[in-house]
Amino acid sequence: MDKKTRTKTREQGTKRARQARSKRPTDPLTTLAALLALPLSQRITAIAKDVRSRADRFRVINAFDLARALGVSQPEMPDNEWSFTTYAERQTIEEYIDRGGEEWAVLQWLEGAVDEQRFRSLEKMFAKLEGAANSSFDFLSAIERKHVEDAISEEQLESNQSNGMCCIASHCVRLGKVQLWFEAVVEDDGSCIDLKTPYDDRDGLCQGLSNCVTSSW
Question: What is the pTM of this model?
């Protein structure tokens, strides 16, 4: 086959692929019906292939319908088949103050973490911050700053746990080497108000926890 013929063949193949894609159902219910016509194992394989190839044929399906189609238990009200995580984003001392935190609380966290002489010195430095338009904590050592910022994060995490805030639930559909992750944003009553699908997981749209403190169960 010469070069001209190969080029023509590729163009014809591309055209047929485009035509095939254009004929695919884009209606969520029709697409869901096509998925449900397959056995469960084939549904999982089909979604894994769709996600990996970025064809996204089945992405139009409602997230809760997609989860149920793949055998996920109770996506609207995640149960014990899901893993749960409460999180709090780490904050700098400056961010904590900007969000309404108090300088005295920062000083309080340092009591007992430094020796008495250093604490008395810090008291004087913090006293100078009263009434200042912009608080600067450059006088803190790296170890002191880390201690305070860890305390801020832990306090926020405890608050989130007590108030049922910042909680996500995760569920993985597995078949051989295939892993398809769903992530639910969970309200304080246990209901899911937003469900991320394997497509969202692929695109980095799930909650990132790399800059957070967490508690999981």
Answer: 0.80
Q: Are 138 and 171 in a shared domain? A: no
- Shared-domain flag, residues 101 and 155: yes
Clarify whether residues 157 and 180 are in a common domain: no
- Same domain for 199 and 148: no
- Cα–Cα dist 170/207, whole Å: 11
Q: Which domain holds residue 158?
A: 90-163
SS3 content of the chain, % helix, strand, coil (to 5): 50, 15, 35
Same domain, 81 and 95: no
Query: Cα torsion for 141, 101, 125, 91, to the nearest 10°?
Result: 10
Longest dimension (CA), the chain: 87
Model confidence pLDDT, tens digit, residues 170-198: 999 999 999 999 999 999 999 999 999 99
Strands 167-175 and 178-186: antiparallel
Distance between CA 136 and CA 126 in Å, rounded? 10
- 96-121 tens-digit pLDDT: 999 999 999 999 999 999 999 999 99
